[in-house]
Amino acid sequence: MIANYHTHTYRCRHASGxxxxxxxxxxxxxxxxxxxxxxxxxxxxxxFAWRDRMSLEEMEGYVNTVLxxxxxxxxxxxxxxxxxxxxxxxxxxxLMQFLQDYPVEYFLLAQHSLEDRHGYRTEEExxxxxxxxxxxxxxxxxxxxxRFTYVAHPDAFRYRGDPALYDAPVRRLCRCASDLGIPLEIxxxxxxxxxxxxxxRFWKIAGEEGCTAVFGADAHEPVNVWQPxxxxxxxxxxxxxxxxxxxxxxxxxxFGAQG
Length: 259
Hints:
Elements: E1 3-4, H1 19-28, E2 33-39, H2 59-72, E3 78-85, H3 89-99, E4 106-109, H4 129-143, E5 150-151, H5 167-180, E6 184-187, H6 188-192, H7 200-208, E7 212-216, H8 228-241, E8 244-246
Parallel strand pairs: 1-2, 2-3, 3-4, 4-5, 6-7, 7-8
Helix pairs in contact: 4-5
């Protein structure tokens, strides 16, 4: 593993450690690229703020800290500035306007809930195939904006309904990612926790659709930037399902020409 683009900071209120500690751990593990992608703040019109997300006021400090470390460690590792973003159509343009003056290099798409903050949370067990379909539709719509570099934990929807109704919506998502050349992330945070994702049934479909996989540490603690045991488990999944794996990804400029 030479690159990790999925790294958080204390600003999201559910991660710990300093940015410098994440960088040092990445260098210790032999990584060549470390991308910070903390949860984006969202400029809701009514002033609502998530309790587990960066605040609007913290964005400047986040950017300045990452850029300073990039300069300091330029001879040791390549540091990139990104954000983990959820796609809510009603608020997405406002988010883009808020972020346009910051030198953010990439977005990771990570859909944790449906229909904005009032929507269904993807980690809750759900038997309704309609919600699974809605999740896949949102991810597809977001990918088609052309603003996202890859999809983080694309298998995060915890569906426990009729297995026969799982294939079609997930296959549409994977086919769209394949057609657009957008990688899908095998999420190490889920592996570390022995969670319900990475979901083998998802990755079987992804492999059949020719999707490209990428490893993402989803590090909320410095030690998680590089964990050989987790890497071994991820590599075993890739080999067993014969997935196409990318060591690095091409960053898509979220503010560039879209199409």
